[in-house]
Design a protein that fits this description.
The complex is a heterodimer of chains A (76) and B (150). Chain A has 76 residues and is mainly alpha-helical. Chain A is built from 3 helices and 2 strands. The longest helix of chain B is centred in the N-terminal third of the chain and has 19 residues, at 3-21. Chain B starts with a helix and ends in a 15-residue tail after the last strand. The chains are: A mainly alpha (76), B alpha+beta (150). At the A-B interface, strand 1, helix 1, strand 2 and helix 2 of A face helix 1, helix 4, strand 7, strand 8 and strand 9 of B.
Chain lengths: 76, 150
């Protein structure tokens, strides 16, 4: 998961590496993901979100579709 | 002590040492800290890996490559926090270190294609928003197929 200044540099990176362009995430969405995954990481109750919980978190941030579904087999 | 209890103890020790020292400890350091045999720590590492909570170093299971959001090796996402320098595994984890440590951070990162310096910052529990973007090249279902690439 890399950081880019703009869509132009994402497109150039994808072309240079022959990798299809996939979803883009802005910094606010990224911060919210960081909070969901890591805010309790140093505590006893820390745990990784389960598959359905992950989909729910992604959807709440506008990240929808099979790309964001850990159980999806569309990408095999 | 049950396996689950031991795993929690090992996990907390990993993160406590990492937060304090800015370096992910190896199995012998964990064993000393919580006073158990190193072989028990290695079994806990394997279980935590199976739960996708850490990634042992591929060629040396005594070392941890990733205890997300922290990296056991230098990366292009250095994160300054609490007067220390940590390394994040990716752009998400750069913010993740701020979320985990609950403190201000600054990361002198760079554009994934051009190498242009791009600074990420968290102040007072909020990111300093810029028009930068993260590209997720790998679908969620395959993140752990090759986590180092992801």
């Amino acid at each position: 998961m890399l950081l880019f200044r703009s869509e132009e540099t994402v497109n150039a990176w994808c072309m240079a590496h022959n990798i299809p362009r996939r979803p883009l995430v802005n910094l606010e969405q990224l911060w919210q993901l960081a909070l969901h995954w890591y805010a309790k990481r140093l505590t006893v109750e820390s745990r990784r979100p389960g598959p359905d919980e992950m989909v729910s978190i992604f959807n709440s941030l506008g990240l929808t579709g099979p790309f964001w579904d850990q159980k999806s087999d569309r990408w095999k | 002590m049950s396996g689950d209890d031991l795993d929690v103890k090992v996990k907390l020790a990993i993160y406590e040492i990492t937060a304090d020292s800015s370096r992910i400890p190896n199995s012998s350091e964990i064993a000393r800290k919580i006073d158990i045999h190193e072989s028990e720590v290695l079994r806990a590492f394997a279980r935590l890996h199976a739960q996708r909570l850490l990634l042992p170093e591929p060629a040396d299971p005594r070392r941890i490559r990733m205890a997300p959001p922290f990296s056991g090796v230098a990366t292009s996402f250095p994160v300054e926090a609490n007067g220390k320098q940590y390394y994040a595994n990716c752009v998400w984890d750069a913010y993740g270190i701020a979320a985990a440590l609950h403190c201000d951070v600054i990361s002198h990162a760079s554009d994934g294609h051009t190498g242009e310096p791009l600074t990420l910052e968290v102040k007072n529990d909020r990111p300093v928003l810029k028009p930068y973007i993260a590209h997720f090249a790998v679908p969620t279902a395959h993140w752990w197929d090759d986590l180092i690439f992801t």
